[in-house]
Amino acid sequence: MSDGQILIADDHPLFRQALCLAAARVAPRAALIEAGTLAAAAEAAAGADALRLILLDLKMPGAQGFSGVALLHAERPEVPILIVSSAEGLGVAQEARRFGAVGFVGKDAPLEAIEAAITQALAGEVLPSAPDPELDAVAERVASLTPMQLKVLLGVLGGQLNKQIAYDLAISEATVKAHMTAILRKLDVGNRTQAVLAARALGLGVRH
What interhelical angle do 173-187 and 133-143 show, nearest 10? Predict the structure, then answer.
């Protein structure tokens, strides 16, 4: 009998296989779901009925900066997300936490360390990070956006017009405008430019 599901989202098949091995050793009865793109990961997360953990690479096709964390957290806010990535920088782990991840481990970490992090995440533990009240407050507002609102915001971050965003998301321009109104309200900003600045201050539109 399966003991829940673990989603492994990484675009490199060999490393995805290594993560599957680590997850299987920690939770041998869990069903493993693999995804090679952010879109596939979001679809799998939305459809998994017993999802216990998401292992996510920041550098996924379709992701910008921490957009993958933000999108999957919005899709399944109750499911812990553990970042396993080659992204570097002292602030990466902290920023990943702001967008909903429970922790960060580098791809160059020993397999034992990755397994230990998976064990902690499955146990509901959060790896500590240094607080920044101002940025944490902005991140909390970004985390309140729905998956579709995040997709609209990412379109804005990419410099797209409402017409382009509507086409890409298969929705009407009026719906895009309605989402933008909600985004501005939730982020507590007055216009698109301020929304972009708030998101970029957190690294949401920055590639890692």
Answer: 150
The CA-atom distances, in angstroms, between 70 and each of 8, 31, 141 are 16, 24, 11
Q: What is the pLDDT of residues 36-85, one digit of tens each?
A: 999 999 999 999 999 999 999 988 888 877 888 989 999 999 999 999 98
Q: Of 72, 202, 94, 89, nearest to 146 (Cα)?
A: 72
Query: What CA–CA distance (Å, rounded) separates 54 from 25?
Result: 16
The answer for 62, left when phi > 0, alpha when psi is -120 to 50, beta otherwise, is: left
CA within 13 Å, CB half, 106: 9
* Residue 144 φ then ψ, to 5°: -85, -10
Cα separation, 74 vs 150, whole angstroms: 8
Mind listing the pLDDT tens digit for each residue in 148-197?
998 999 898 888 999 999 999 999 999 999 999 999 999 988 888 888 88
Q: Are 101 and 143 in contact (CB under 8 A)?
A: no
